[in-house]
Amino acid sequence: MKKVSEMKKQEKTERTKARILNAAMQEFGEKGYLRTTVNAICTHYHIPKGLLYHNFAGKDELYLICVERCFSELISYLQPHAIAEIETYLELRFQYFARNPLYARLFFEAVLQPPEGLAEQIKKSREAFDCFNRQTFHVILSRMKLREGVTEADAMEYYELMMELFNGYFSGMAKAGQDFSKLITEHEKKLAKMLDFMLYGTVERGMLLK
After folding, report:
1. Quick one: average pLDDT of 89-96?
2. Can you spell out the DSSP letters for 24-79?
3. Which of 16-20, 23-27, 201-205 has the weakest average pLDDT?
4. What is the residue-averaged pLDDT of the chain?
5. What letter does residue 80 receive in the DSSP assignment?
6. Residues 166, 194 contacting (CB under 8 angstroms)
């Protein structure tokens, strides 16, 4: 009887945590980290503040859990697909973000404008996603003929450097206060072009205009 009671108590606790996290995801996904407060989460979703603090340390812990869930669910969406072409990868990303706007907002804020003081924890949370990206690019490269003198290690190093610079460019735009919905659209559009240029080049080698 005691075990049944403990199980019911555990189930109730898990339901409470899920309710609080769903409320936090809604707030962070709509407003971002800076404009979200514990008071807003509690007020808008009728959650007693004491109950929230009984289950979570506060705003930062809620945000980090939501970010980790965002990366994890994006991987879960992408992983079942046999991604062998860059176009497939980009199309799947576009579909996911279009269907999950709250996750899209949270994902891009975490990547481009991580809240001050949480950058290291977020970097750790996105390690699995970065690893998935590297593995995907490795598969894509393995199906392509590299230029003479270019190794796969060279290509991977270049890819990671370009992604760092690319996201750094958009990070500057995010910090300048550009609207996040427009930023997301622009990021994905330019990402497709950047990866196309990186893989296929911008000019016909040896072909000069007369």
Report:
1. 95
2. HHHHHHHHTTTT--HHHHHHHTT--HHHHHHH-S-HHHHHHHHHHHHHHHHHHHHT
3. 201-205
4. 91
5. T
6. yes
Instruction: Retrieve residue 156's tokens.
Output: 């991977």
Is 70 exceeded by the pLDDT of residue 7? no
Whole-angstrom distance, CA of residue 53 vs CA of residue 58: 6
- Lowest-pLDDT choice from 98-102, 178-182, 206-210: 206-210
Helix axes 86-99, 101-112, angle to 10 degrees: 120
Q: Is the dihedral of CA 146, 152, 153, 158 positive or negative?
A: positive
Which stretches within the chain are classed as H helix?
2-31, 38-44, 49-55, 59-78, 86-99, 101-112, 119-125, 127-142, 152-175, 180-200
Q: How far apart are CA 208 and CA 190, in angstroms?
A: 26
